[in-house]
Design goal:
mainly alpha; 14 helices; transmembrane helix; Phosphate transport system permease protein; transport
Length: 301
């Protein structure tokens, strides 16, 4: 009897929702919002690849991706050296940022006293809100001269860009990793300690492996920010189109290439198309990173 009454009440509520004008209006608003969002994404994708096609057709996809010669005045468009430069800076930023960010997240989640946590958490949020051009100016005035005086060279280099970008990804890695570690059930830690593990062993052998999907997600999100960063990199990477032989050499990244040359290219030219094709390659990299995040979250579930 009670079950029948509950079913009848549920049906009445559903009927009311279907007939309520406000509910119908909001449903339409939500559908329109979703359609606009999907249309915007598809429009951007279509624009990028349609405008990039002339460069791929003129230069050739393989030559465009793997050639090391970028001389628009001579009709030579190869972004291989920029892909290498982007990879070097990305790897350097991860080498610097990931260990610091991960260990800071563990400290904040399991070791940090509450008074200190109340200071560190807002500082992490502030670090995330600093504009990239401020990071670039800091790198230009502090890190670049320091590298030049102590290690040689001009200072504008892979090392300088890696240090700045390593600092920039810290808030992402710290916040996401900390939340992942805190989300691990407390029984994991208690069970490990009950079996004789020390606090450190219980954290790093039990809780951290349980939170590995969230930690990996934070690293991949940081990777996405490093690859897509423009202003800070342009100011300190040196912008030299060449294969680096040392971390003290300057390089040009994919994002820097677009922002440096887009302002003076002729509209509709192959040069403009080549720059948009560079953005298309960068877009594919970001898409791959997004798919990796989705796969990690799916595996975690």
């Amino acid at each position: 009897m009670e079950q029948a009454n509950s079913c009848g009440a549920a049906e009445a509520i559903q009927k009311k929702v279907r007939t309520d004008p406000k509910e119908l209006i909001m449903k339409v608003v939500f559908v329109i919002s979703a359609v606009v969002f999907i249309a915007a994404v598809l429009t951007i994708c279509l624009f990028i690849f349609v405008r990039a096609y002339p460069a791929f057709r003129e230069v050739g996809l393989f030559k465009f991706l793997f050639s090391s010669v970028w001389q628009p005045s001579q009709g030579k468009y190869g972004i291989g050296v920029m892909i290498v430069g982007s990879c070097y800076i990305t790897a350097g930023a991860l080498i610097i940022g990931v260990p610091i960010g991960f260990l800071t997240a563990v400290f904040m989640a399991r070791y940090c006293p509450k008074p200190l946590y109340k200071v560190m958490k807002p500082m992490t949020n502030i670090l995330a809100g600093i504009p990239s051009i401020v990071y670039g100016y800091f790198g230009l005035k502090v890190i670049v001269p320091f590298i030049s005086e102590n290690f040689g060279g001009y200072g504008n280099s892979i090392l300088a860009a890696s240090i700045v970008l390593g600092i920039m990804i810290l808030p992402t890695i710290i916040s996401v990793s900390e939340n992942a570690i805190r989300a691990v059930p407390k029984s994991y830690f208690e069970g490990a300690v009950a079996l004789g593990a020390t606090k450190e062993r219980a954290i790093f052998r039990t809780e951290v492996p349980a939170a590995k999907s969230g930690i990996m997600t934070s690293i991949i999100l940081g990777l996405g920010r490093v690859i897509g960063e423009t202003m800070a990199v342009v100011m300190i990477c040196g912008n030299q189109v060449r294969f680096p032989t040392s971390v003290l050499d300057g390089v040009r990244t994919l994002t820097a290439n677009v922002v440096l040359e887009m302002s003076y290219v002729e509209s509709g030219s192959v040069h403009e198309s080549a720059l948009i094709a560079t953005a298309a390659v960068l877009f594919v990299f970001i898409l791959i990173i997004t798919l990796l995040v989705a796969l990690i979250r799916k595996k975690a579930k």
